[in-house]
Every structure is written in C-alpha cells, then in structure tokens.
Amino acid sequence: MRHVFEASNMLEAHVVNGMLQAEGINSFVQGDYLQGGIGDLPVSGLVRIAVNDVDYEQARAIIQQWEREQQDAVVLPSRTQDKPWVYPFVLGFGLGILVALWFL
Length: 104
Known about the structure:
Elements: E1 2-7, H1 10-22, E2 27-30, E3 47-51, H2 56-72, H3 86-103
C-alpha cells in the first residue's frame, strides 16, 4: 500500500476516495477520525488516501487531473451582492419617511 494523496480534511479525502473507487481503483482513507485530536496531534498529514502499489500511477494521474479541475473552478463573487444590506436599509428608511409624513 502506498499513500497517493494527503487530504486537508475528511470531506476532501472521501471525495477523492469515491472518485478513485468509481474508476475501479481499490483505495481507502487512513486517519479518518484523527482530526478530532487536533491540539494533541500535529495538524498536517492526518488524513491520507492509500492504494495498492500496482494502482499508484493510475491513481496519481486521476488525482492530478482532479486537482487541475479544482484550480479552474474558482468561483468569483457576483457584483450584485457587493452590499446586500443596502437595499433593505434604503427600503426601511423610505417607508419610515412615508409613515412620518402621513402623520404630519
């Protein structure tokens, strides 16, 4: 067994593990619940994906392709949500002025 990928968290590890298994590569997650010991254990290198020696090269190629796709999938914030609090504020302010003018 060889370590093919070091995940930053359990979710990422299980995504990669599922992706490898979907490609027919027998893999498993090591250190699945060690993140619960952060503070007592070192933070890096806790969760890893292991594969058989014969599947290592194919697994690395699949993971590298996935990593390239993840870098391309950067989501930029939309310009319509720059200041979402402004619209309710303006609406409330306008309604307050109308109610005040009604009572005058």
